[in-house]
Sequence to fold (589 residues):
Amino acid sequence: MNPRLLAVRAGLSRGGIELRQTLTSPTDLITFVLMTGGFLAAMLSARHTLLPGTAVSLGTSRLVSVLALDVGMYAVLWMADRLVGDREDGTLLRAKAIPHGMLGYLVGKVVSISAQVLIAVAATLLAGAFLVAGLAIGSPGGWLTLAWVLVLGLLATLPLGAVLGSLFPNTRTTALIFLVLGGLAAISGIFYPITRLPVFLQWTGQVFPLYWLGLGMRSALLPHAMAVVEVGHSWRQPATVAVLLAWAIAGLVLAPVVLRRMARRESGSRVAARREKAMRG
Amino acid sequence: MSAIFRSMDCVLDVSGLRMRYGQTDVLAGVSFTAGRGEVLALLGPNGAGKTTTIEILEGFRMRSAGRVSVLGTDPAHGGEAWRARTGVVLQSWRDHSRWQVRELLAHLGRYYAPYSTPGLTRPWDVDDLLATVGLSEHARKRVRTLSGGQRRRLDVAIGIVGRPELLFLDEPTAGFDPQARREFHDVVHRLADREQATILLTTHDLDEAERLADRILILAGGAIIADGSADQLSRAMSTRCEVRWSRDGQRFVHAADDATAFVRDLFRQYGESIQDLEVRRTSLEETYMALVREAENSGPRRLTAVAA
Ligand SMILES: Nc1ncnc2c1ncn2[C@@H]1O[C@H](COP(=O)(O)OP(=O)(O)O)[C@@H](O)[C@H]1O
Ligand SMILES: [Mg+2]
Fold:
C-alpha cells in the first residue's frame, strides 16, 4: 500500500485513540463538564429574558454564541495547546523519527480535536434544545447551514491553531493565545451585535473567522427576522462562505510550511533543554 | 572483517565531520566507518559531542562540514524510505504517556508496513517484540505508569519496531540501577544476534562500552582518538605491563616494557622455582582516562596503531 495513504489511515485510528483517552481522562472530563456547565448556566439564567423587539430569548442567543466559541476559539486553542505540549514532551519528535509519522500525527490531531469540538457542539445543542425556546432547529435548511458552517469553521480554525502552536515556545505561553482570542471574541459580535461597536472595530472583527462563524451559526439557528441587527440587515451567507474558505486556504497553505520548519528544528537535545528549563523555572 | 568486505557493506561512513556552535568547534573532524551487523560504542566524557554526532547521523541536526553517509544516504536529505530503515532511541523520552504500551507499539509499527522487503517483514510482530524486551506482562499498562527501566525498554522496542538496519541508542542506560542495566544489556545482545542490525550507541561508561560493543570509538577533544576492540585499545595504549611472581617464598613485582621477553629471561634464569606468575596489562579504565586527559590537554592525537 502507498505509504502516505497508510499513514493517513494510521492517523485516523490515532485520532480515535486520542479521543478515547480524552473521554476517559477524569481531568479532561471535569474541565469539559465545568466549561459546558458554565455556559449552560449562563444560558438558563437568561432563558426567560426576551431580546427587545423579538421572540428570541437572551438564553437562545447565548447558546448560539457558545457554539461559535466552541469552533472559533476552542478549536484554535486546543490545537495550539496540544501541539506545544506534544513538542515539549517529545511526541512530535517521535513522529518525526518514523516514516510519514508527522502526517499520521497531524491527521490524528485533526480527527481528535474535530471530534472533541463536535461533541461539545452536540452537547450544547442538545441541552439547549430542551432548555431554551426559540431555536430554529429542525428545518432541513437550518441543519444544512449548521453542517457547512461547522466544516468550514474547523477548516479555517484548526490550521490556525497549528500555526500558533508551532510559533509558541512552551505550554506556559499558550495562555496568551487564550487572552488574545478572548479579546477577539469581544469584537466579533459573539455576545452583542457587532453593529454596536465603533466602525474601525467592526472592520477589525470582520477580518477574522470568529465573526463569520458566529454569523453563520446565527443564520443556521435563529429565526430569519433576527438578521435585522446584523451588518447590512442580512445573514450574508455568500460572504461567510468566502471569508471562511479564504482563511481555510490560507491556513492549509501556511500550516504545512510552518509545521515543517518547526519539526525540522526539533531534536533530542532541544527537547531535553526545554525540559531542563521547565524544571528549573 | 576484511577491508574490502567492509567497503561493500558500509552502513556508516563519516569523514571530516565538523560541528561548530558559535565560536566553539565541538566536532573538529570526526571520521569512522561501520559495517553491517557491527555494534559500535561511541565513548566519551560528558560534553564531548556524542549526542551532537549521533543526532547528525540521525538526520535531526545539520552539520557544519564534512561528509556523512548513513545507509548510503546523506542524513540531511534522507527521505521517508531511508527513515524506515533506521531506528532511534534518544537519551530520554516522556512522550505518549497516556497510551497503553501495546497499543502504542502496534500503532507506531503500522507506518513501517509498506517498507517490507522480500527478505524482511516489517514491522516486528508486537507480541513477539514485547516478549523480546520483557514487557509482555505490562502490555496493557499506561506508559506513564512504567518504571524507569521498563520505560527505557519500551523506548528500545519502539526504536526497533520497524526492524531497522541501523539502530541509534543515545546513553541508553543513563540513570539505571545495576539490575535494569543488566537486563538492558541482554536486550541489546539479543538484538545484535537475532536481527543482524548495526548498532551505534553512546555512553560515558567504559564498562558498558566494553560489555556491549564489538568496537569502541573514543571521542575526545572533538575527534575520534581511538578506534578498535576493547582488547586492541588497551594493547595499543599500555606499552607497559606489570609482572608479579614469587620465588623461594618471596614476592616480586616488576614493570616491564616487553613483558614476553622479560618473562622468557626470568624462566631461563630461574626455571622451575618461579611460581604464582601474573602478567597484568594496564586496565582499559586507566587507558581510557589517560587518553581523554591527553586529548583534552593537548588536542586529539589519533592512535594510528589501532585505527582499523
Ligand atoms: N544547540 C547547541 N548550541 C550550543 N552548544 C551546544 C548545543 N548542543 C550542544 N552544545 C555543546 O556542545 C558540546 C557537546 O554536547 P553534546 O553533543 O550534548 O555532548 P555529549 O552528548 O557527549 O555529552 C557541549 O559543550 C554542549 O554544551
Ligand atoms: Mg549526550
In short: Residues 125 and 271 of chain A are 41 Å apart (CA to CA). Residues B 50-51, 91, 171 surround magnesium ion (ligand 2) (CB under 6 Å). The mean pLDDT of chain A is 88.
